[in-house]
Specification:
By secondary structure, this protein is of the alpha+beta class. The chain has two domains: 101 residues, Response regulator (Rossmann fold), CATH 3.40.50.2300; 74 residues, Arc Repressor Mutant, subunit A (Orthogonal Bundle), CATH 1.10.10. The protein is built from seven helices and eleven strands.
Length: 210
């Protein structure tokens, strides 16, 4: 992959791989399920808690059930061992292109649109380069919107995504959180630039890149 002008960081075990992930903030992760010290599944879960960068799983050819497991854990694609390096490079290029088209600055684990910047590693949000304090729920809502630009979410769907089906949640709770979030990120909360209300449907995040 170095011949294809990729900057490659290699780890011989899982813990070293996680250290590299946090230190180097890579644009893509290629993860073997079979590691000597910690399972690939555990590493995948930790990465997905911190970042949405592209992730390819390496699986044993004879273990087809691992492929379904890879997707369930949040992997974007898999490749069976032994593999052709050209196939791996092709998958890497496709994933990088797909994520870049969604507006991600992958090499920094940042989602950025106009003057809003979300850092997925340290979980901070900046408006015009100044850190703003969001509640955990406001952060989850903004992340949901920015990862899915121009997609309309019903209140029920946002409750499922943000509150994880908590029974005590109800639809007007979403309206309150949206109002508070707009107050923090919009120039004019009554004429929002980012989070739009879609009558009788819900809300969506308007991204002029798409």
């Amino acid at each position: 992959m170095i011949k294809e002008n990729f900057e490659v960081y290699k780890a011989q075990n899982g813990y070293d791989g996680l250290s590299l992930f946090y230190e180097k903030n890579p644009s893509i992760v290629i993860l073997d399920l079979m590691l000597p010290d910690i399972s690939g599944e555990a590493i995948c879960r930790e990465i997905r808690e911190k970042s949405d960068i592209p992730l390819i799983m390496l699986t044993a050819k004879s273990h087809e059930e691992n492929e379904l497991q890879a997707f369930s854990l949040g992997a974007d694609d898999f490749i069976r061992k032994p593999f052709n390096i050209k196939e791996l490079i092709a998958k890497v290029n496709v994933l990088l292109c797909r994520y870049e088209n969604r507006g991600f600055l992958l090499h920094e684990n940042i989602i950025e649109d106009r003057y809003i910047k979300m850092n997925m590693i340290n979980k901070t949000v900046s408006i015009h380069e100044k850190i703003v304090e969001l509640t955990p729920t406001e952060y989850k809502l903004l992340e949901l919107f920015m990862r899915n630009p121009n997609r309309t979410f019903s209140r029920e769907k946002m409750m499922q995504e943000v509150f994880e089906y908590q029974k005590e949640s109800f639809e007007r709770t979403i309206d309150t959180h949206i109002k508070n979030l707009r107050n923090k990120i919009e120039h004019e909360d009554k004429n929002p630039e980012f989070i739009k209300t879609i009558f009788a449907m819900g809300y969506h995040y308007e991204n002029n890149k798409n």
